[in-house]
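Exercise 3.2. Students should predict the tertiary structure of the chain below and write it as structure tokens, then compare their answer with the key that follows.

Predict this chain's 3D structure.
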Amino acid sequence: MQVDTDRLNAFVGRFVADLGSVVHAGMVVIGERLGLYKALAEGAATAPELAARTKTDPRYVREWLSSQAAGGYVDYDAATDSFSMTPEQAFTLADESSPAYLPGAFQLGLGALRAVPRISEAFRTGAGMDWGEHDSDVFHGCEKFFRPGYAANLVPAWIPALQGVQARLAEGCRVADVGCGKGASTILMAQAFPRSRFVGFDSHAGSIEEARRSARRAGVTDRVTFEVAKAKEYGGGPYDFVTVFDCLHDMGDPVGAAQHVRESLCADGTWMIVEPFANDRLGENLNPVGRIYYSFSTLLCTPCSRSQEVGLCLGAQAGEARMREVVSAAGFRHFRRAAETPFNLVYEVRP
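Answer key:
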């Protein structure tokens, strides 16, 4: 086999970038946990100055800052031996209210990678791995990663894109948020629509406990409750509006879950499905976003589905056509793409 030197060098260059990204993920999580980004966003600082602001060790901070500067996550001024952040860097790394806040993605990634030994064995056996068996960083990172996108889009764009739903929520209706995790999506809706009543359901008891605490902190317990329940078993209907955020593809039996949603909906109710952005053909997903989602799907989504009944394993890149098949098999007649972002597709489904 003849090796093309130029192509080899290009591929090795990609490897260098990827290896740097892997270890850099740990640096981002450290910076977020210790408040290093937030402190540096207050103003330029040398390593000892930043260490003093954050009550950390100057030598470790120096090494961390150097890694950040090499990766372009902070700026370095050789004349003053100081480091700083641009407004764009601070917006994505230091401002938790930003719609582009990034550290949660790295926390999710590191948590997912801790399952590599277990998933490697699953390749041989075909066994699954339940969502609740993952490292706790998966649950915390998942909420921290998805919440900014939900905050930026759910109330301002996604709900208004659905026929008649915004007015119904404003007047007051009953809502089920299925697969709610730690409750970020449920609480955002409850804050925006105080006349409606919301129930968040998730099969992971630990996430439900966290969701209840978040609801108390947000002051919405008068209109929000959280319950442990599977997608095919939750109760309390009929609901005017049912939501499923970034988790239908994780379910072992998404058709069965969709049938239960149909049974729990009012005759004129609406189901909103939010899924990772994906085109229908593999070749159209071979891009940076697709690489992220296929990798997470290998570590998290596919094993989660395989651990449940049926184990359909839609995967995080199922695409619109596959989702249409699932909801049609459950008896729904109306299905359309209502909105999209670079990371999500939003579907409107009605009986």
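Discussion points: DSSP finds 14 helices and nine strands in the chain. The chain has two domains: 5-94, 107-350.
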